[in-house]
Design goal:
By secondary structure, the protein is α/β, with parallel strands linked by helices. The protein has helices at 10-22, 36-46, 58-63, 67-71, 89-97, 114-123, 138-141, 146-152, 156-159, 164-185, 192-205, 212-219, 223-235, 264-270, 276-280, 285-298, 342-350, 377-383, and strands spanning 25-29, 50-54, 76-81, 104-110, 128-132, 208-209, 239-242, 258-261, 305-310, 316-323, 326-332, 355-360, 366-369, 372-376. Strand 11 (326-332), helix 17 and strand 12 form a beta-alpha-beta unit. 39% of the residues are buried.
Length: 385
């Protein structure tokens, strides 16, 4: 595909290498099927000495029946894929990582469950570095493929499918597999049809303020149960929960979070959107563009600190990013020529922003007001990288 860099994910590889220089273990977190295994296999192949364990393979599980006996003599790089499937490995790893000198460094791959994060953080505190990974970004896919990436999402097999029909079919299969198998591995005991309804409701709400009670009424469940469902989906990196920024400005500000389906392709599958024409004519096209841009801007090994802002009077800002000590506001407008709005002026003043970027699907950069510019997505990514 023209402009496509396929699996070359230089920033992620560099972050892993940096993590291993300062820590004996790196945990690479990301949703299933986002390309973690392909990346790790490439790193292992380039290492002078390596050993690879895939815990979805019965043979590798059998090799780790006695993990300390198997792992203790290994040298070089040791990769353990889907590590959350064997929680009993973490105490063993703690002992191995405390050896001096360090004979082996570990690259642990996981699907970012809350259990994995809590287990590794507590057992391996001070011994590990975390690196995040998502699907393809605009930078990786090539700027000329941005519309295709938005429509199909960043999962490699969806993005690279031969046709829109194949891409949509892959995403439907992914959703079914995730609901029927992966959620159980993450500790969820909620029936798949219930979670499918919940996920679909979140898709229709994507880009909006979370109302747990309203969703609970639709599902016939308590708002506390809805929050638990959301924790599971957020921990699996299927959903982004964007928290509000509370500025001390003497105005009433919203305290509930906004929610997004993180992968635009999965959002479209849940909404029944199959083609670009379907997307462009859908009522959620603006919300889809907003969520897509947010994921592109926040993608990377070390995601930026980010919030949204909205007052009870109606002033709002889609995204507030603390980037290298500077506060940047970001608005997303699915428009050929976005214009300055009162909310933008209010946000600049009330939040003391250093700048405000209005990200739109056009190709030209132009000034709207002092420190406020309309910019293409690729330029916004460059400015916040």
């Amino acid at each position: 595909m023209q402009g496509m860099r396929l699996v070359r994910r230089d920033a992620i590889e560099a972050a892993i290498a940096a993590g291993m220089r300062r820590s004996p273990a790196v945990v690479l977190l990301g949703p299933r099927q986002c390309g973690k295994t392909t990346l790790a296999q490439g790193i292992a192949a380039a290492s002078a000495r390596s050993e690879y364990f895939d815990l979805e393979k019965p043979a590798d599980l059998a090799r780790l029946a006695n993990p300390e006996l198997t792992l203790q003599p290994l040298r070089g790089l040791v990769v353990i894929d889907e590590v959350q499937r064997r929680k009993d490995l973490f105490p063993v790893l703690r002992t191995l990582l405390d050896r001096r000198p360090i004979p082996a460094r570990f690259l642990l791959l996981g699907s970012a469950s809350p259990e994995l994060l809590a287990q590794s953080s507590e057992t391996l505190a001070g011994r590990i570095a975390f690196v995040s990974m998502s699907g393809f970004s605009v930078t990786e896919s090539g700027g000329g493929n941005a519309t295709r990436l938005w429509q199909r999402g960043g999962f490699p097999r969806s993005f690279l499918a031969r046709s829109d029909v194949d891409s949509h079919a892959w995403r439907e299969d992914f959703i079914q597999t995730f609901l029927q198998r992966d959620l159980a591995q993450l500790g969820s005991r909620v029936p798949a049809p219930t979670m499918r309804r919940f996920w679909t409701m979140l898709a229709h709400l994507s880009g909006g303020i979370l109302n747990s009670s309203e969703i609970g009424n639709s599902l016939g469940e308590a708002h506390t149960t809805v929050r638990r469902h959301l924790d599971v989906m957020s921990g699996a990196l299927m959903v982004r929960v964007l928290q509000p920024w509370h500025a001390n400005i003497g105005k009433r500000q919203l305290k509930s979070p906004k929610v997004y389906i993180r992968d635009s392709g999965l959002l479209h599958a849940l909404l029944g959107i199959r083609t670009l024409a379907d997307l462009q004519g859908h009522p959620k096209v603006g919300a889809s563009w907003e969520g897509f841009v947010i994921e592109q801007l926040l993608a990377g090994p070390r995601p930026a600190e980010a919030y949204f802002w909205r007052t009870a009077a109606g002033a709002e800002l889609d995204l507030l990013v603390n980037h290298r000590g500077r506060f940047t506001g970001v608005e997303m407008k699915y428009s050929d020529a976005p214009e300055l709005t009162p909310s933008m002026r209010i946000a600049m003043t009330d939040l003391s922003l250093d700048r405000l970027l209005v990200v739109y699907p056009g190709a030209q950069r132009y000034r709207l007001a002092p420190h406020i510019e309309a910019v293409p997505l690729s330029e916004a990514m460059d400015q916040l990288s």
